[in-house]
Specification:
Order of helices and strands: EHEHEHHEEEHEHHEHEEEEEEEEEE
CATH topology of the largest domain: Rossmann fold
Largest sheet: 9 strands, antiparallel
Helix content: 10-25%
Length: 389
């Protein structure tokens, strides 16, 4: 009998994943990961880890499977939290959930599971996988979840073939309503439990307070760049490099309309948290300059400073799940892509150059933020990803 260790978070998805693994004839062990100790920056009644652990334990008991908790807080801090602080400090926008899957769930956790004799690990992610034979080699494919509203393949865009070979996604073929229905039928206490919000395994975090643990407030200017005199719009340029270039602003191009407490607390496209009123249209962050501690803003969602048609990914930050499809220098290929979770897929052409990978979208994209991940797909198969630079 094959052994599966299920990452049980105390939610309905992982509860049903554990149930389905048992139904499929696996020997199942439930494992809860405790990754965070500091409750001072979480909204305690939103996602308390102790309640989640207890819920997972009750579900495991109901299913008749062994259960234990593992403390991975040290690894989580060094691999995820410290990375987050560094990225925000450098004016970039990290995605800790993507890293959590790559570094914690399918690296540290996977190794612990293998130490328990596991053949596979299973999670409650809404995605699927299958395998194909190509050139006498087995290749694993990461496929979007059947439920379009819950598809979580984007969060797994940094995992590799070796990791993928060891993962099961028991609920990927189901809709969320079906998952809750199964939980109800099996009388699992998580059947009606609300989905958790916030950082992977930390809970619903008050992000400013979280960042202020290490990134101290520092007063700076908010400068508005008027769209009418916008001279940075190069969308008609034929150069791939120009289309992908980050727009650089100058304080002289706009006017000071307020102050802020630290450029590193803000990200492109952000609307809330500026606390500046009196403008005909809402203000959006169009860029941050952490070196000069300046936030550049523009009025309205159609402000040209919010949009770019291209982006660049440095070669060392390009990751192919399908290594067999890796582009060689001088080659281009068309895909579908997204630059954030839940964003509808957009048509894109990837151009592999000697040092960088360039992505040019058919339509200009709003709030392309450095540090975020772009993931590209062939239909519903996730092919690769990279960190926007």
């Amino acid at each position: 009998m094959k052994r599966v260790v299920v990452g049980m978070s105390g939610g309905v998805d992982s509860s049903v994943a554990a149930y389905l693994c048992k139904q499929q004839g696996y020997e199942v062990i439930g494992l809860f990961m405790k990754n965070w100790h500091d409750d001072s920056v979480t909204i305690s009644d939103e996602c308390p880890w102790l309640d989640d652990s207890n819920d997972a334990m009750v579900v495991a008991d109901k299913l008749g499977i062994p259960f234990q908790t593992v403390d991975l807080s040290e690894e989580y801090k060094s691999r995820i939290v410290d990375y987050m602080f560094k990225e925000y400090e450098n004016g970039r926008t990290p995605n800790p959930d993507v890293l959590c899957n790559r570094e914690i769930k399918f690296d540290v956790f996977l190794k612990i599971a293998e130490g328990l004799g596991a053949d596979y690990v299973a999670t409650g992610h809404y995605c699927r996988k299958d395998s194909i034979q190509k050139d006498d080699k087995e290749i694993h494919r990461l496929i979007a979840g059947k439920d379009n509203n819950k598809d979580q393949s984007y969060f797994l865009c940094q995992i590799n073939q070796k990791q993928l070979s060891k993962i099961l996604f028991p609920i990927g073929h189901l809709e969320k309503t079906e998952v809750r229905q199964i939980a109800k039928q099996q009388q699992l206490i998580t059947a009606e439990k609300k989905d958790s919000q916030g950082l992977c395994f930390i809970g619903k975090v008050k992000l400013p307070e979280f960042l202020q643990q290490q990134l101290k407030p520092k007063e700076g200017k908010v400068i508005e760049i008027p769209s009418t005199s916008f001279r940075y719009n190069n969308l008609e340029s034929e150069s791939i490099e120009a289309l992908s270039q980050k727009i650089v602003y100058d304080a002289k191009d706009g006017k000071v309309i307020g102050n802020h407490q630290g450029a590193h607390y803000y990200t492109k496209g952000q609307r809330k948290g500026l606390n500046i009123g009196g403008t005909p249209e809402p203000l959006f962050v169009i860029d941050t300059d952490v070196k000069e501690n300046i936030i550049y803003v523009g009025q309205g969602k159609k402000h040209p400073g919010l949009y770019r048609k291209g982006l660049k990914i440095k070669n060392h930050e390009v990751h192919w799940i399908r290594e067999d499809l890796r582009l060689k220098p001088g080659v281009s290929s068309s895909y579908l892509a997204r630059i954030r979770y839940r964003q509808p897929l957009e048509h894109v052409t990837l151009y592999q150059k000697e040092n960088d990978l360039f992505a040019i979208f058919d339509n200009p994209q709003m709030a392309i933020a450095e540090g975020q991940f772009m993931a590209w797909y062939n239909n519903d198969e996730l092919i690769g990803s990279g960190v926007i630079s």
